[in-house]
Amino acid sequence: MGLIPSTPPPGPARAGFWRSPVRSAWLTTIIGSLLLATITIVSVTGFLSHAAYQPDLGSNALVPRELDLQLFVISWPTSPSWLYAFTQGSHVTFGLMLLPLLLFKLWSVIPKLFWPLPTTPAKALEKLATLLLVGSALFQVLTGLTNAQLYYPWHFNFVVAHYYGAWIFIASVVLHVAVKFPTMKEARRTRNDVLGMAGDELRSPNPGPTTISRRGVLGLLGGATGAVFLGTVGQSAGGPLRELALFAPRGRGEVGPGARFPVNKTAKVAKITPEMVGDGWRLKITGPGGKTVELSRADLLAMRQRTYDLPIACVEGWSSTQSWTGVRLSDLAALVDSPDSRSMHVVSLQPRGAFKQTTVGRAQVADDESLLALKVGGDDLPLDHGFPARVVIPALPGVHCTKWVETLEFA
Ligand SMILES: Nc1nc2c(c(=O)[nH]1)N[C@H]1C(S)=C(S)[C@@H](COP(=O)(O)O)O[C@H]1N2
Ligand SMILES: [Mo]
Questions:
Q1: Domain check: are 227 and 302 in the same one?
Q2: What tens digit of pLDDT does each residue of 157-178 get?
Q3: Based on CB atoms within 10 Å of each CB, which residue in 72, 127, 174, 390 is the most buried?
Q4: pLDDT tens-digit readout, 16-25
Q5: In a domain, 254, yes or no
Q6: How many structural domains is the chain composed of?
Q7: In ligand 1, which atom is closest to the CA atom of 356?
Q8: Which residues pair with residue 217 across a beta bridge?
């Protein structure tokens, strides 16, 4: 094996470079277990988010609509109304907590990442699996983090990349846990042995003086993850914690003129002009049989009004519950002879952009609390929140609650 050098180059690739006496299989096992619990929460809520986010609610957007296998369709419920605020708030909060956990975990094993180089095909495969694990973990956390921070340095579709990245990540986590399980068990068994396990590969061969205890390291880690939790959770949990949500770019409150809760995209950015939403505005509704109705805002206000407290819950993690007043979607469907609609396609006045239109499913149209909202908090909708009319549906991701509605097509 002359091709593979037997001694590492000087520097961080040498185990002797890392002198902390704290590093051991026991410490890595503890951090790894915390990481595993967090990853489980983030994965489950991530797939739930994916199911809820689908334009037709559950079918896989990556599969052409015609090939869509009904077997895999999860229809997203409309109750409880805070469901998505909860699952997505958890996904983003725990997802951000992965960052300190991952950094500490990497630190705890770092010399092993570089050295020894693999000498057999089996070891090379194990190294490759580790690379895939570390790479996909960092990819998932960094794409999620930048997306929630509204910073888009990459030029790929976030939803598609984060979704496939998740499968690669989860597969490598499962493989890693299976491979390391015996080591983890052994490390837990010997935790009180000061010298650690015999042949503990994570111990420094050349330990330096003790500057921090194992407890100290875990305390630092707890402090860092706790700070991320407290700095994020308020954007979805609300209450006094909202003011603490320093890591939530929108979750803390007023953004945009006249808004009392966060605005995802202002009217100005969406290119909505005052003329588009003036007295000339008409809502166009079409039914499956071709029946068409046009209503002014005054016509809509003359219909039976309903008021419900419902959250707007953004995929970025923030949410805000408001009191919405407007017309039931099922009442509008009835106007065009579609009492039991399979779906509703909504198109906004917004000239372009991915969120200018959406399709929602049967449960979303039928729910009594699903509204075409005209007012919020008792006042006319502010322009930035979708005046003259917007969709608000319980438990649905905010992205489907289309603002500045122009047409509703019931099918
Ligand atoms: N027409 C249109 N509707 C839209 C959007 C948009 O960009 N254009 N953004 C959506 C997203 S992602 C969210 S989270 C909610 C936010 O609603 P708000 O800005 O009133 O808080 O609006 C949704 N409706
Ligand atoms: Mo959103």
A1: no
A2: 888 889 999 999 999 999 999 9
A3: 390
A4: 788 888 888 8
A5: no
A6: 2
A7: 1
A8: none
